[in-house]
Amino acid sequence: MDELSLQWTPVHGPMRKLVFEPQPEGEYAWTRTEFELCESQWREVGIEYLEEVSFVSSDEEETTPFHIQTHLEGGDGDE
Asked: What is the pTM assigned to this prediction?
């Protein structure tokens, strides 16, 4: 799966963006990186490491996790 991105313009301050990126070879399954637009360039302002990513829409009763996770238990990767 490719990265997922959410971009918005707040009432006050520069445009911002969150990027959720799978890390199949990393220690954690995902990274969440936050950026802000500064002089026409995206500047990283924070990063967080995630075990799983979930999305919720207003018509769902529960959170639905993305089950794309890196297996770190030393398996052969064929799961």
From this structure: 0.69
